[in-house]
Design goal:
Blueprint: H1 4-21, H2 37-40
């Protein structure tokens, strides 16, 4: 088992890595999707 200081170091390291990999920016199309005028006026 790891020492408590090593566990804290790794937890912090993984948290920083997760935040870096998680894309919450405007570039993320799944979070910032806007309907175009073409799709809004399409007949179903």
């Amino acid at each position: 088992m790891l020492e408590p200081t090593e566990q804290l170091r790794l937890a912090h390291l993984y948290e920083q890595l997760r935040l870096k990999l998680l894309d919450l920016s405007k570039k993320n199309r799944m979070l910032n999707y806007s309907f175009s005028t073409r799709s809004a006026s399409a007949d179903c």
